[in-house]
């Protein structure tokens, strides 16, 4: 049996906990929440959505960032042999920047409509996508990353990581829809103008349909990522 260091156990615990929160929240939303509220009338549905979406954004935002960054830490120490790589390589530095930005964005109580929130989100997206591109390019260069994917374990880890990046970007799209729904919900719940309510109701249903279109791709990605994680964790695949 392989003996892992204390730091690897801690990072693994954080990684698994964040995965459970992130993936669990998405599965709850995709498989339970929307289907359960499908036949509920508009105002009671919005009364559920309004407080839920704000909390959902911050919890899943922190969980997804922690999942990705703790995965990078595990990738560095277990796959490449050194935790210091997160501070000495371009992909490591960009991954660290992404985590710091995402943590700040979801823990400082910034409003999604604020310039600070949107600027941090853009910076975080740039850092994460940049790190992913550098990793992909490094595969084709004579680096330690190119030898890492020669094993089925390394290929599963890398593929799962890149798919998790895509899943996080879909989460941002869904988060934008949730933000718009929250703003519409505030207007609907505080208005008595029937004409305005009709217009807002159409916008709400349009946004809800757009959210539901992303549910299936999200769910498929979740299943594939979990399958790759299970494969990578299997000691017989090492």
Describe the structure concisely for a colleague.
With 238 residues, this protein is mainly alpha-helical. The protein contains 8 helices and no strands. Helix 7 runs antiparallel to helix 8.
Q: What is the overall pLDDT average?
A: 83
Number of helices: 8
Low-confidence stretches: none
What is the end-to-end distance?
A: 12 Å
Sheet-strand content, in percent, reads under 5%
Order of helices and strands: HHHHHHHH
Major sheet summary line: none
Helix residue percentage: over 70%
Protein structure class: mainly alpha
**Basic shape:** elongated
Gyration radius from CA atoms, angstroms:
20 Å
How many distinct folded domains?
1
Give the number of DSSP strands.
0
Describe this structure in words.
This protein has 238 residues and is an all-alpha fold. The protein has one domain (6-237). The protein has 8 helices and no strands. Helix 1 (6-36) runs antiparallel to helix 2, helix 4 packs antiparallel against helix 5 and helix 7 runs antiparallel to helix 8. The longest helix has 40 residues, at 194-233. The chain is elongated, with a radius of gyration of 20 Å.
């Amino acid at each position: 049996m392989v003996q892992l260091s204390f730091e690897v156990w801690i990072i693994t615990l954080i990684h698994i906990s964040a995965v459970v929160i992130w993936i669990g929240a998405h599965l709850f939303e995709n498989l339970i929440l929307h289907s359960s509220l499908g036949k509920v009338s508009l105002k009671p549905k919005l009364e559920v959505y309004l407080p839920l979406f704000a909390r959902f954004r911050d919890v899943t935002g922190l969980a997804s960032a922690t999942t990705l960054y703790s995965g990078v830490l595990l990738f560095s120490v277990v796959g490449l042999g050194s935790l210091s790589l997160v501070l000495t390589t371009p992909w490591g530095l960009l991954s660290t920047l992404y985590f710091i930005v995402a943590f700040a964005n979801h823990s400082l109580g910034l409003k999604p409509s604020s310039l600070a929130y949107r600027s941090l989100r853009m910076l975080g997206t740039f850092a994460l996508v940049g790190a992913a591109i550098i990793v992909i390019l490094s595969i084709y260069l004579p680096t330690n990353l190119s030898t890492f994917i020669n094993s089925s374990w390394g290929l599963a880890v890398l593929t799962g990581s890149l798919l998790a990046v895509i899943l996080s970007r879909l989460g941002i799209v869904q988060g934008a829809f949730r933000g718009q729904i929250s703003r519409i919900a505030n207007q609907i719940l505080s208005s008595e103008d029937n004409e305005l309510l009709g217009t807002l109701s159409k916008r709400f249903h349009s946004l809800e349909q757009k959210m539901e279109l992303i549910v299936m791709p999200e769910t498929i990605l979740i299943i594939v990522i979990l399958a790759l994680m299970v494969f990578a964790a299997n000691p017989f695949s090492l």
